[in-house]
Amino acid sequence: MSTSASQNIPPIALPFVSERAKKLLDVVERFVHEECIPADPVFFSQVGTGDARWHGHPSIIDELKKKARTLGMWNMFLPKNHYKNGPQFTNLEYALMAEYLGKSTIASEACNCSPPDTGNMEVFARYGSPAQKDQWLKPLMEGEIRSAFLMTEPNIASSDGSNIQLRIERRGDYYLLNGSKTWASGTGDERCKVYLVMGKTNPDHPDQYRRQSIILVPSDTPGMKIHRMLSVYGYDDAPHGHGQITFTNVKVPLDALILGEGRGFEIMQGRLGPGRIHHAMRAIGAAEYALEWLINRLNDERKKPFGKRLSEHGVLLEWVAKSRIEIDASRLIVLNAAIKIDQMDAKFALKEIAAAKIKVPQVALEVVDRAIQVHGALGVGQDTPLASMWAHLRTLRIADGPDEAHLQQLGRRENKQRKDEVKRRLAQQQAKTEFLFHSMGVDRKELGAAKFNAKL
Amino acid sequence: MSTSASQNIPPIALPFVSERAKKLLDVVERFVHEECIPADPVFFSQVGTGDARWHGHPSIIDELKKKARTLGMWNMFLPKNHYKNGPQFTNLEYALMAEYLGKSTIASEACNCSPPDTGNMEVFARYGSPAQKDQWLKPLMEGEIRSAFLMTEPNIASSDGSNIQLRIERRGDYYLLNGSKTWASGTGDERCKVYLVMGKTNPDHPDQYRRQSIILVPSDTPGMKIHRMLSVYGYDDAPHGHGQITFTNVKVPLDALILGEGRGFEIMQGRLGPGRIHHAMRAIGAAEYALEWLINRLNDERKKPFGKRLSEHGVLLEWVAKSRIEIDASRLIVLNAAIKIDQMDAKFALKEIAAAKIKVPQVALEVVDRAIQVHGALGVGQDTPLASMWAHLRTLRIADGPDEAHLQQLGRRENKQRKDEVKRRLAQQQAKTEFLFHSMGVDRKELGAAKFNAKL
Amino acid sequence: MSTSASQNIPPIALPFVSERAKKLLDVVERFVHEECIPADPVFFSQVGTGDARWHGHPSIIDELKKKARTLGMWNMFLPKNHYKNGPQFTNLEYALMAEYLGKSTIASEACNCSPPDTGNMEVFARYGSPAQKDQWLKPLMEGEIRSAFLMTEPNIASSDGSNIQLRIERRGDYYLLNGSKTWASGTGDERCKVYLVMGKTNPDHPDQYRRQSIILVPSDTPGMKIHRMLSVYGYDDAPHGHGQITFTNVKVPLDALILGEGRGFEIMQGRLGPGRIHHAMRAIGAAEYALEWLINRLNDERKKPFGKRLSEHGVLLEWVAKSRIEIDASRLIVLNAAIKIDQMDAKFALKEIAAAKIKVPQVALEVVDRAIQVHGALGVGQDTPLASMWAHLRTLRIADGPDEAHLQQLGRRENKQRKDEVKRRLAQQQAKTEFLFHSMGVDRKELGAAKFNAKL
Amino acid sequence: MSTSASQNIPPIALPFVSERAKKLLDVVERFVHEECIPADPVFFSQVGTGDARWHGHPSIIDELKKKARTLGMWNMFLPKNHYKNGPQFTNLEYALMAEYLGKSTIASEACNCSPPDTGNMEVFARYGSPAQKDQWLKPLMEGEIRSAFLMTEPNIASSDGSNIQLRIERRGDYYLLNGSKTWASGTGDERCKVYLVMGKTNPDHPDQYRRQSIILVPSDTPGMKIHRMLSVYGYDDAPHGHGQITFTNVKVPLDALILGEGRGFEIMQGRLGPGRIHHAMRAIGAAEYALEWLINRLNDERKKPFGKRLSEHGVLLEWVAKSRIEIDASRLIVLNAAIKIDQMDAKFALKEIAAAKIKVPQVALEVVDRAIQVHGALGVGQDTPLASMWAHLRTLRIADGPDEAHLQQLGRRENKQRKDEVKRRLAQQQAKTEFLFHSMGVDRKELGAAKFNAKL
């Protein structure tokens, strides 16, 4: 018998989930299972073919948005400790919902919870001026417009934000922007009305993390040129898209700067924590969904290679078990990180967030790859969501810095934080051991010493 | 700056830990760090060499036991829901303590929390008759005697308990035991006074899991012969030891049976759940301790291969990070399982316990192996606890059934429990998709269909 | 300094390579590096967008074919032991060339060495009637037409060929075909003029591997309908394409059958061996090419995350080393298999071919994935060949049966072939040991036996 | 049916093996299978218990040596290109024999082919003075004495030989040695009569690889003290042993220096190449032997967990297959390296030797670990050779430098050797692509460009 989402919350997380959140979680689950997943193929067909893919957007998304809002599923991502007028859920509570949203391509957008809008709305909510909130946060929260966050640049090591080249120069009463951006996700969509652009205002500041600022640029500002869209393993992600854009003498008024000059890093850091939790939980949802496809395939009566149903093949059962274990472990890591963000703040949960950022996509990719493998050729094609899911999960190992950069930072931090204590303690323990041998009058028993000491 | 054990409890677990448990946890931490770890090498030297290793036991263990008891660290493993007269901690609370006990070879015994006594005491507490409790549980809880659990037999697949061969035949007013047991851990120790022996009383019972019983056999009962001790890699684990024993017409009174004929499996199942949590948490403690050795080595000023300190080598920092992530994920899995046992019972937490049983030893082995590798030859020898730690952790992938058996069961159970729901839901989703295409008047966009359909 | 392809042949393989083959190998290397790789992006641009992608084919391929033929690179795959009129290279010699062809999308076709034509030509050469050779083999060898091999069907376990459903019924002087095929690679191309179709002629034959036949169907035969093309992770592979096709009362003359009724499996087996070698060596070439991109990236002066060039990051150097080791090991496996095919026949090299089939794609996928990872977002997009390469290599773990089926067969065969010898030998060795103890008068030293035996 | 060792040589290696070598290979195979493996347990029992383990050596080894010599199996390791008076086999030919020797603990010594004597004899043969050869090489080649190679020191990073601290100071007509050595393998054996000691004669030489020398020290020289023996995962390896030794004003005559001052590194490099091939091939033999135990266990009629024989469990068959593939791949790597050493010299085969050094132990460890796992508790104990085999193979990942150091060197070398060529070629290819677009008048097709270019 099937259990509801709220009944499947790991016992260890239950004390952190309000009754109100449990109820909405079950609504989200049904909405995703009964409305969004079935609508995904319709969405893709509505996108169309050829150049038409970049014009307009599928009508089904608007219908789902209406339904979602009616059912109370709207902007759930806005954490209660940062925004008083949102739906008042904690990061932990939204994390549980985000898992379900991650099972469908369009569910997040249907609930106005899709990146990069979520992170951008958080930026507006935490750091925006009243005028900025009025102009951009309001329509974003209403789901009327969309937005983009432009950080990555071509030809630099994007894992290290201090490398950013785009120049934001103050010229009297405006800023002048010159440079180029790539992988600007969402810029293909005609509803995308505003870009949050990271650039350098203070290239000579002695602190390399105080040189950057974030500035708002309406998408129809002259001087910006979208050259093309980038693909993800053959998927163009229309109409959303990932654009490559150049800025040539783009003029923006002074009050378009968020928070002030040199505060770009600070904003970005605040933006990343919860966003990584969202990404991670959606990835877990994708992994769960892939596991469903895997189980479905194992029990397909028509598939009996070598006389046995797939579910009787031990190797495949081991895949189910390993997937189960690793998905569950990953979820606990993310939920624990979310709780730490709720209790303290993202900056006190860097280790936990990094662990989630690194581990979850690897687990999810492996589960999805297993599901693809049991489907054979069907798995790599367009008739299951698996191949597309894999391709998009794969980008999570790169986005916001590659795994390797995060592993280095995590390892370096752990080493730095613990080395003095560890060295001191091991030394003390060894000294105490020596003391014990001495005080107790016990001889160290050394291998072969009886013979070799006698000899000499 | 160093933080105490209670401050390091993952936030997600905190609601389940009483203040009293936090206080004792910090006492345990200090005891292990300051008393037990330094005493480990003394213990090994006191064991002696050659045949002397099997006579008596190191005096340092008795001193530590006294200290531990004085400080309130005694029998903490006995879960409050099963035993009213114990120290009243939950499985979750003890799990946190067991992690620290796992850092030292002798800490568990010092607190009277070492296997197989712990599981045996649980058996007595849950299933023993008043007389059995009086005779055996009392001295066990006082730490006056030790015990063994004899299940594994030579030449059968021990992962499947239904294979057990040792016969327990009723003959009038006694039982007659014939057969052989191996890997009887603890039987080398002269303090080991009682064996819990699993055997077949009802070999013809139609239910293959009702054929076994567990019976108590005092270690000096005539007819039992210990042939030799078995080693773990090159370690003999004296004086504890792992014995190979034959039973030849061993007579035991009728009231030596626990709970009744045919209830051996039931007892064993109840025994395994918490025991696996203990093993897993001790393994996590071992992994944390190995990580400390690893970090200590990375910061050894004398080690600068190729001009860089080890802590500047990226590959080794990645080891630190990966160890950190996987240890933390493993701990959450185990704690979540412990909570489920506390809230329901072990039999409702089979999936969670199995996950812990499978994942934790693999993670711990990998962390310890990394610590060995950075120590070079030093790591495989006797001057660090690492090689011995690895060898003993390795047995956890085999004990109580090999990983592969648990993976099969876990995979099979997951598949069985979920297949109907999953198949139904995917089918419903696909039907709903068809309905949407139809009702919305949208055509499925098929790749190349424009051309190829036109052609025909 | 750079060395030529013939100088890079592993010393162990050199005795098997003629001077003539070495010379052509160097020609192939230069052709691929200087003509084909640069032409790949032109090819993709010429394919066009939208429906145009399925009409015609890029002109650049015709130019490359002309050049290749002039330079003597034509049909090199045809093994000298099966076809007297080909270019007379061994499987080993062609394998070395195929590695280079695998670095470019279009190089194989440029040399008339691209699948599925290669396998189909081998079928015609080995099993075709003179008339069949005249009608189809001749234009195929001239590169005037292309062909497809239709085996996979929807909704059956394709790893087990005995499941095939398409019916080939004899009706007087023709065969009637009914059924459906999917993943029919090459059917998108207008130059594809003939299909080799696997179906069941003798569904009731007691030997399940004698029920299938292969029959030739011209691509314009009435009754066949291509419904759509299938994608590989978002890539449509136009104009080649992977078609889904139904057969409704398709009539084919009796002499369209190859070799005779019930011999489909035999033909397919003969076809697979060399084809798997080709696939494997092309995959190795792809891996080598990805490693070049990886090295190129490591030495990009513009990429200095955290102040160090990528080539100074130890983790990435380890990737280079591991890639080097595994690519080299894989190549030796494939070359050894090719030699065995040359010396005996594919059916005596099943173990070696299976090893290559399983190991090479996994190694290549890992190397390409590493190259993607160091390129960050650039790696998943269209500006390097890496993402497309990965997606297509991924299908090799599925095509001709999933890895898991091959691993089972390989494991089962190894177990079956060796178990009797192994059991016998180990038993004999143990008996000999007993004899030695006895004859030499040596006692078995058993751990702890001195004490425990004394006690009893 | 069983095939002989010479029939199992991979086809690709056959051209390099003389008929004479094939014949002896078959003799070696039978000797190992029929004499040595059965004698291994006798050897261990003869070693005895307690301190007796370090006195004398088992008589069975002397008997086997006699047999081996009679059968022509003596000093086969001495490569024909370095020693005219040896048995005249190539490194490749001996490698094939070494694989079989690796299946038994005592087979190598029985054929006078056991390390560290082999490497030491090579040193004497290549670099020794006539007097040194007469005094030491002669009795070593006769198997009358044994020897040790003292390089590793406590408390330094042994992966980087330039760190060596032991001082060798010239004082008039003798050298004075002060310092300490550890992991001096073989120093436990009373037959070990000479140590080759690496130390610093020229600590101030500007070239850090010209500071070291190797000097001969008879094992009874005053001033040396063996403090104890080191264990390997609990195994003491008596009577061979791994000693920790201090040197206090040890006097050695001037002519005890090999080759000359400052040439220690040169000698060590020449010594390592073939030695690594030997280690690797013995490890492959160990892996093959473990695979035999694995297969034996899978077919044990008494083992039927959950009603199926182990050989019917798919996961275990996959282990057989993966073991088969990786062992075979590893062997080809080593044989190819051996051929390169034979044709050129070890210093031209650094990449190939490093690959073997890194990959083979990892593969062997995994195969042995699988064999242990299927044996359950039996696998970690003393009743199979598996646990001991694993422990000793594990040291190969550390000995002569840890894997990580070799991976860094291999990665660095590959990167250095190839980066210029690779960068140049990719740049040329990209330039050629641009040229083709231009010359052919083809436009680059860019995703979405039609729309976005039109807009602006």
From TrEMBL, chains A, B, C, D:
Sequence ranges assigned to domain Acyl-CoA dehydrogenase/oxidase N-terminal in this UniProt record: 19-144
Boundaries of every Acyl-CoA oxidase/dehydrogenase middle domain copy:
148-250
Q: Kindly state one GO CC term assigned in the UniProt record.
A: cytoplasm
Swiss-Prot/TrEMBL cofactor(s): FAD
Instruction: State the Pfam families in the record.
Output: Acyl-CoA_dh_1, Acyl-CoA_dh_M, Acyl-CoA_dh_N
Q: Which biological process annotations from GO are given for this protein?
A: fatty acid beta-oxidation using acyl-CoA dehydrogenase
Q: Which GO terms describe its molecular function?
A: acyl-CoA dehydrogenase activity; flavin adenine dinucleotide binding
Alphabetical keyword list: FAD, Flavoprotein, Oxidoreductase
Domain Acyl-CoA dehydrogenase/oxidase C-terminal: start-end pairs: 262-413
Q: How does it assemble?
A: Homodimer.
Protein family (similarity comment):
Belongs to the acyl-CoA dehydrogenase family.
Q: What is this protein called?
A: Acyl-CoA dehydrogenase
Q: What organism does the UniProt record list as the source?
A: Cladophialophora psammophila CBS 110553
